[in-house]
Amino acid sequence: MRACRDARLFTGLNLGRRRGTLAGFPYSISVPILYYNADLFSRAGLDPDRPPQTWSEVRAYSLEIKQKTGQYGLFVEDVANWAIDAMVLSNDGAIYRNVGGRTEPAFQEASGVAVYQMLQEMALRSILEERPALKLARQQLADVVSWPSFSGGNSLEAEQIRIEATEAILSGKKSPSSALEAASEKIRRLTARFP
Fold this sequence. Notes:
It is a single chain. It is built from eight helices and six strands, in the order αββααβαββαβααα. The chain is mainly α. It is globular, with a radius of gyration of 19 Å. The relative contact order is 0.10.
């Protein structure tokens, strides 16, 4: 491979290095961000020049927007995977950890539970909007699974377990703590069989 002169590409390549050797080549790097609608802020009586700085503020502003405008205060592109991962990571959490050379679930830890708790509260209070087309797709395409995050032969099934836990949380059927702990245990058992 030619010498890399672009610092961004070099940084991306380093993501695929293990012990100094290029072991994998990242084909996609994502930087999830939160956009806000300044006009909607104004209609809700919020200052559009002072956007939320924490997830607690996002929740409070979203409630204010819903109460004062009837509009949803937060839209999450896909509550099954990437968006929630970004929220957990931005809350100093982790989705999985390397423990003794094995990938172990970490989303059930306190930082992850806090994110799911907030999303559950917002979904049950009808503050969080799920894209209607995505909701319909989930109902009609039950066998489609999301992109894998866990290593091993059952990585897709592990992600499906997490998706089902998220759906149980957002529907109010289970608390974030119990759903995430149960999902974590299922994934541990699943990945232990197929490292």
